[in-house]
Specification:
Number of helices: 1
CATH architecture of the largest domain: Beta Barrel
Distance between the termini: 151 Å
Strand order of the largest sheet: 1-2-5-4-3-12
CATH topology of the largest domain: Thrombin, subunit H
Shape: elongated
């Protein structure tokens, strides 16, 4: 009997203690949560900065990749344009009756007043002084100096260069000379009575033995007649892309006088 009573008292005390402990834990729970807040904030801040640094690094990597792809796109655009120019050059060779040799521009004179370029063909390729040079659109110039593996070309826009031309519309002969401007030529000694007008096409006349007959030279863009002047001011836009063409053609023609010197200035007028 006594033992049973003792067991009942112990069980009652144990239940009371458990209930009291549970109540204490429930009351202390907010304090535990508050005490854990700094740690949670620290973890959140750490994750935040870690995530931001990863995003920044990823953004920089993507920007670098984008720059590389943009460079590749630009290169592809340049190759497309170059292929188009080469195709035009190929079409030009099909229309020519003269034998030609493809050359590439490898240098440009640094003097803005000297319109001279360097190409990658020379004496070993059969290049000769005075040889005509054209691009896919028209006359570019003529060989001025020949070396073993390269040559210098005097462009038609150089102020030292002049060539005989004729108007395709009526056969009128004239001399086109360079004025040191890649976009312009001028006709020399044109009288007020001569039949010229804007839009007329000029081709090489074949006179002088330097350029074969019939190659495009340019188009007249302006004819100015001043009553007080002895001659008409005639401006010509070159047919060739003088300041842009990279691939050129060297012309070999039976009508060229291979033994003569370059026609630069008055020599090409006769």
């Amino acid at each position: 009997m006594v033992i049973s009573l003792i067991l009942v008292v112990i069980d009652w005390q144990t239940s009371s203690i458990k209930h009291l402990y549970q109540s204490f834990n429930n009351a202390a729970l907010p304090f535990h949560w508050i005490a854990d807040v700094p740690g949670k904030i620290g973890n959140f801040t750490s994750n935040l900065f870690t995530g931001r640094s990863e995003l920044v690094a990823e953004n920089e990597e993507l920007a670098a990749e984008l720059l590389v792809y943009q460079g590749k796109v630009q290169r592809m655009a340049n190759l497309t344009a170059e292929n188009m120019r080469l195709r035009n050059l190929l079409n030009a060779t099909e229309l020519l009756q003269d034998r030609v040799l493809v050359a590439e521009l490898i240098g440009v004179n640094s003097d803005p007043l000297s319109h001279v370029i360097t190409i990658n063909r020379g004496a070993v390729d059969g290049v000769f002084s005075g040889q005509p040079v054209i691009d896919s659109d028209g006359l570019m110039g003529q060989i001025d100096e020949v070396y073993d593996n390269h040559s210098r070309v005097l462009l038609i826009t150089d102020s030292r260069h002049a060539l005989p031309v004729e108007v395709a519309r009526n056969g009128l002969r004239a001399i086109a000379e360079g004025i040191g401007d890649y976009r312009q030529l001028r006709l020399r000694h044109i009288s007020h009575t001569q039949d010229l007008k804007a839009g007329d096409t000029l081709v090489s006349s074949g006179l002088g033995g330097r350029y074969p007959k019939g190659y495009p030279v340019g188009m007249i863009t302006e004819v100015v007649k001043n009553p007080g002047e002895n001659f008409v001011a005639v401006t010509v836009e070159p047919a060739a892309q003088v300041d842009r063409s990279r691939h050129l053609l060297l012309v070999f023609s039976e009508v060229l006088d291979l033994a003569s010197s370059p026609a630069t200035d008055d020599d090409s007028q006769n």
